[in-house]
Design a protein that fits this description.
Blueprint: H1 10-19, E1 27-28, H2 30-37, H3 41-53, E2 57-60, E3 63-66, H4 68-74, H5 78-98, E4 101-108, E5 111-118, E6 133-135, H6 140-146, H7 151-159, H8 173-186, E7 189-192, E8 199-207, E9 213-222, H9 228-253
Antiparallel strand pairs: 1-3, 2-3, 4-5, 4-9, 5-6, 7-8, 8-9
Helix pairs in contact: 1-2, 2-3, 5-9
Length: about 260
């Protein structure tokens, strides 16, 4: 019998197994892991056994969950951890001033990856979570990051299709390019009903001295709960503050 995974590398299979875990599926049996990973049960069983043996997964009877080894490796992701530590005081000030949810995010491929969140008074409508992703073209933070990304990254986003998440999502490439140009001028991005239903927000990129976006700060909440254009300048000032702290930290490390 031919193994349907014969053309797939062991790394890709292991990635599929580990990628099957999520906050909603953090404890699963081998059958469910195989289904979510798209692999045969026999292949999944061998991979899970190896990952358990090396501590990347852990077994509790018939149920498997993420092991401590992955947690240890996650803590070695220095740049996001350091950036989050630098940004947290500013994020706390921004949340206190706006009473809304404050996000810190980075660009990962064509998605926004959330690395820090301080929840506001009404955050139930938000789809974001730490470690979660949303399409970059459908979020204020994503557009703030894309505005200062390379042309190759922007074209990759466009070529894969500007899939609508909500009625307000930009789906026209020319409209997206025009908005990114405006963001480059103002350093502030806005979104209304683009990623989540009834959600609006303002975002600003955290830039290096050579205008490379390392992350973005954003404030999000329910439509009607606040005016994003009024808080846009405050979000921009907060991003500038984090950028200065990040530059100073990098300079200190280089001394």
């Amino acid at each position: 019998m031919t193994d349907p995974t014969g053309g797939v590398s062991i790394i890709e299979r292991m990635t599929a197994v580990l990628g099957s875990f999520s906050p909603d599926h953090d404890r699963m049996g081998v059958n469910e892991i195989a289904r979510r990973a798209g692999l045969p049960k026999s292949t999944t069983s061998r991979l899970v056994a190896g990952l358990v043996r090396h501590g990347y997964l852990q077994r509790d009877g018939q149920v498997v969950s993420v092991g401590l080894k992955l947690f240890e490796l996650g803590t070695l992701s220095a740049q996001p951890n350091e950036l989050r530590s630098l940004a947290l005081p500013t994020m706390a000030d921004l949340r206190k001033a706006t009473m809304q949810t404050v996000h810190l995010s980075i660009l990962e491929g064509t998605d926004v990856l959330y690395i820090g969140i301080l929840r506001g008074r009404e955050s139930s409508a938000l789809l974001s979570r730490v470690g979660g992703r949303l399409p970059a073209h459908a979020t204020g933070a994503g557009k703030a990051l894309l505005a200062f990304a390379s042309d190759d990254v922007v074209q990759r986003v466009i070529q894969q299709g500007l899939t609508p998440c909500q009625p307000g999502t930009i789906t026209d490439p020319d409209a997206l390019l025009r908005e990114l140009e405006a963001i480059r001028r103002t350093r502030v991005a806005y979104s209304t009903a683009e990623a989540g239903p009834g959600v609006t927000g303002a975002a600003s990129p955290i830039l290096t001295p050579d205008a490379h976006a390392v992350a973005a700060l954003s404030v999000s909440g329910r439509i009607g709960g606040f005016d994003p254009e009024r808080i846009g300048p405050a979000v921009h000032m907060a991003a500038l503050r984090v950028a200065r702290l990040s530059a100073a930290s990098a300079m200190f490390r280089g001394m």
